[in-house]
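Quick illustration, no need to memorize.
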Amino acid sequence: AVVSTQSTGECQKVNRTWYRLSSDPSLWKTLCCKPFYRLSSNVASGQLNAFRKHYGEIPWRLVFVERFRLQHNWLQGACHVRTFEGHTQGITCVQFDNYRIVSGSSDKTIKVCDYFIFLHNVCQRYHPCKP
């Protein structure tokens, strides 16, 4: 039988036995591996490493909750648009990791933003080197 993800969370409220069964990490790991919640291998390894670094092991229920929210927000269009300011022409490329956002522009400048500082709209602008 198929049980919805919401029902799986509700099972924890029935009694101790159901709580124990629905708290089993293998259940949440299986849900994370379903195609609907699966992430690309690079993104998935980054997510798992972050959880492992913070908790010492992988808390699969929390991993699933994060993936569920990501999928739900994506489908509902519940995202936050951030505007890059400071370039005088259009942005031609953007690259990011867990810590920085780097943008390149047709104005031949590069902006390097610390992700957390970027949330406050403060970035460093670099001009091209002149030969």
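The chain has a mean pLDDT of 79.
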